[in-house]
Structure formats: structure tokens, C-alpha cells
Amino acid sequence: RDSFDILLLPGDGIGPEVVGAARGVMDLAAEHFGVKLRYEERKIGGEAIRDEGGPVSDETLEAARASDSVLLGAVGHPDFDDAPVRPEAGLLKLRKHLGAFANLRPVAAVPALLDASPLKKEVVSGVDVLIVRELTGGAYFGEKEEGDERASDLSVYTKEEIDRVARVAFDAAKRRKRRVTSVDKANVMATGRLWRKVVTEVSKDYPDVELDHVLVDAAAMHLVREPGRFDVMLTENLFGDILSDEAAMLPGSMGMLPSASLGEPGSPGIFEPVHGSAPDIAGQGKANPYAAILSAAMMFRHTLGRPDVAEAIEQGVSVALEAHFLTADLGGSKTTEQVAEAVGRWIGAGEGVA
Ligand code: NAD
Ligand code: IPM
Ligand code: MN
């Protein structure tokens, strides 16, 4: 196919800045390949609470379902920190509505950024990890109780929820270095023991993929001590949230990590940077747009079936990074727009087309 309907949900803080940058790159890539992109833009998060009375409207959920894919910026704003319904709830509802249970968060060392990482070059060099985070279960979605004296977040996992996300991880490993590290807390948590059991069962269908199990506290340590030991890291919702922010320090900034949130084949995916709305730098042109741009590339690869367009965008990103188009978080001084323009200029660079 060469014509797609994309729902843009820029959201709060730097969301509109990075989605604007990614859209510009997508348009240039689409033009380069003769692909037609039709956009609809809607509100989510704090701006939707303000203008529509809730963090995501039913119309927006329906528009997401009717689209080929969703490109999301970020949600979250300090104005709503004490609101009864927070902006973040809109994103959780959207993920659930689309059944986006598998969140792919690739983390790769970038040669041009080895100095941007707080970790030693020898530790970071050559790292290529894919975090597969379960996204619609666990403590995020269990029964909640919220009071001034007592609060609880119930963490529930079913066999089926673990099985389906594990298969995503093993399938991905088959196309990579054929290694899955499953991360749990089986020494303390019942969900962790079920997780381990189900993942071990699933692994029998993948005899050519090596599986090991690591407890989450140790995994957090290994991730900065020897990240090169990981290929695919499979874990539950909350652990995956935490470990992926830690992993952002391998390339050196939250602004470098893209993600794809996928459900059943054929359902629209949600493509979003791993970072948040960064209220501390919003509106200043300082936001690093690479994560959003790379999320757009993931969209072309994972749901639009156009890996050629994805690769061309990724090549543009590589060249822009090599040419030191770096925002402040990476030690540079380029603006969000300057980075996006540079990526656009080098789309498909190196593919042999003049
Ligand atoms: P954050 O990711 O927004 O920011 C953490 C730090 O990283 C900040 O110093 C910020 O300036 C920096 N940073 C993040 N993205 C950057 C980028 N693209 N370029 C340059 N610097 C960047 O996390 P936080 O401050 O803990 O959360 C702020 C709000 O965002 C909260 O309301 C939170 O709930 C929300 N949030 C939303 C998402 C999402 O929409 N997917 C993800 C994480 C956090
Ligand atoms: C993320 C974010 C979200 C999460 C929040 C904003 C709901 O931190 O996408 O990593 O915890 O999943
Ligand atoms: Mn997070």
C-alpha cells in the first residue's frame, strides 16, 4: 500500500514540538517514495482535559481505531498533577482501547554519541538491546484503591497475557541475535513466578532462541555494567517502564528512544517516544526530536509495511547525528527544527540515489 491515514496526538509539553518535527520528516520521506499520508490531529492528555473535559475522548479513541497508525508526542502537565483524572490516564486508555499489549523499545549505542553517554565508551559501544515491555497488564491496570490512609494497585497477569507478549519477544529474537532475557521478580512475586513459567513454556516453541531469566534488581545492575550481554529483554509493564528510562542513558538521552506499541496483527499501532512531556524545556525549541522521528520510522516498518521508508528515515537520522546535529541534551546547540531539517535533507542518504 502507498496511502495511509495517520492520527496525530501531539499532547502536552514538548509533544507538539517533537511531533511537528517528525511530521515534517514523514512528509519528506513520503514524497521521496511517492507515498500519500493523510493526517487527522486530535487532543490527548492535559490539553484534552482542558478543552474536552477528559484526557481522551471517545471520538479520539474511535479515530485511533479507524486510523492505520497513531503518532503520539507525550502527555503530562504539572497543572494537572492533583487533578482527579490525570493526563496520563488518557494514554493508558488509548493503549488499552487498541489492545496495544507489546511495547517495543529499541536501544542502540550511536557511534556519534559515545561522548553523550554518562557511561564509559567501552561499556556502551556496540550495544543493541530491544526491550519488549508488556503494556496493558500488571499494576497499571489492576484494581485500584485510593485513599488518604490506604492505597493499593493490584498487579495481575494471566497466562494468556504473558504468552502473547513472550511470543513477540521470541519472534523478534529470531530476527536478531537469538537471545531472550526474561526479567521478573519470581523470588518475591506470584506474578513473577507465573511469568517465568509461561515464558519457559513459550520458549519450547523457539528451540533456536536461547532463554535466560534474570531478577529485575540484578537486571537493572547488568544494564549499566554490561549492556552488551542483552539482545531481547522481555519484561512486565512496570519493570519495563523503569528499565527503559535507565536504558536511555546508553545512547545518552531520553530524547533518543523511540517505541512501537502493537496489538493483534492488522490493528493500528501507537508510535511514541519513550520520553515524557519534559515541562522543564517545553516551548523553547530545545526538545530532541530524534525519538519521535525514529518512532515514525518504526511506524513505517511495523504497521504500514514500508520498511524501505523506515530505512530511509533511519539513514537520515544517522547522517544528521554524524554531522553533529545535536540538541542540548546531547551536548549540542541545535534546535528541534534544525535537527528535523537536517534529517529531512539526508533522507535515504547512502542508498545510492543522488
Ligand atoms: P520526562 O521524560 O518528560 O523528562 C525527564 C528529563 O529528560 C527532563 O529533564 C527532560 O527535560 C528530559 N527530556 C525528556 N525528553 C527529552 C527530549 N526529547 N529532549 C531533551 N530532553 C528531554 O519525564 P518526567 O519529567 O518524569 O515527566 C514529565 C511528565 O511527562 C509527567 O507528567 C509524566 O507523567 C509524563 N510522561 C509522559 C510520557 C508519555 O507520554 N509517553 C512518558 C514519560 C513521562
Ligand atoms: C511511558 C510513560 C507512561 C508509562 C506514563 C506517562 C503513563 O512513562 O510511556 O513510559 O508509564 O507507561
Ligand atoms: Mn516511562
TrEMBL record:
Binding locations of NAD(+): 276-288
Gene Ontology process terms (BP): L-leucine biosynthetic process
Known catalytic reactions: (2R,3S)-3-isopropylmalate + NAD(+) = 4-methyl-2-oxopentanoate + CO2 + NADH
Domain Isopropylmalate dehydrogenase-like: 5-343
Residues bound to substrate: 95, 105, 133, 217
Gene3D superfamilies: Isopropylmalate Dehydrogenase
An example Gene Ontology CC term for this record: cytosol
One example GO MF annotation: NAD binding
Residues binding Mg(2+): 217, 241, 245
Record text on cofactor binding: Binds 1 Mg(2+) or Mn(2+) ion per subunit.
Similarity comment text for this entry: Belongs to the isocitrate and isopropylmalate dehydrogenases family. LeuB type 1 subfamily.
Protein name: 3-isopropylmalate dehydrogenase
